[in-house]
Amino acid sequence: ENPYYTVHSVNAEVSVEDFDGDSQVWTEKFKDRFDSSRVNVEVSVTNSSGETINYTQPTQGSWTTDGTTHKLNIGKFTSNGNYAIKATYQDEAGNKVELGKYYFTVDNTAPTGTIKVKQGDKEKDYYQAVEDIEKQSGLKKFVFNLFHLNDLHFVLNASDDISGVKSIEYTVVDAPSDASQTFSASTDFSKMNWSPVTEDVVISADRNAVIYQKITDKAGNITYISSNGGFIVDKANPNEPIVTVKQEQKEVYNSDIDANV
After folding, report:
1. pTM of whole model > 0.85?
2. Shortest CA distance to 214 belongs to which of 98, 112, 132, 140?
């Protein structure tokens, strides 16, 4: 089980409790020997791939004592990363005791992703970011720029360098039935039905639409991506033209004729 829990910042603290057992062995005199310099705090920070990354060292507080409890505020960690904090205490005899290990993730960065179109054995970028996500509740303009006579395959990918990707979802929004080359599609994402991405998204039926991608990381940050235009899948053959001639039907004419298509 992953020991990390994800937040936007952490105010960390180390607490040391004096032994309060047999008073004949552990007297008040010995309790007074707590030495904060014998407490060692180790902090390591990694990305989602387990690689060590740099972080901003927070301002550390001072030790405080309340009875037999000694506490140190390590500081507020705000840099993005997966944190592992280990604290140990070494007594006067050289004995080490582990005070505990603590794991948490700080992630304030939105995930990233792409939408690509499969063309044979190649994939072509076909996406753009949807800006001002918090304010999106209206329409976004698109231009039809992708026309396909067969099944259309979209490949949706996502990544997140800190907490990792929790989910990738998509939805397809149809263009208005009377849409011309330029049209508007809804960006009211909260009212859309999203489906999980498990493989290529395939458009097999005739359709005029746009595709949106929703990426959520494990910290709850969300990124929306759209196709960079509208697509048209049209497998139907055009109707054969019908030619009519206004004059009397015959094989050979010796004058101009009027024809309608």
Report:
1. no
2. 112
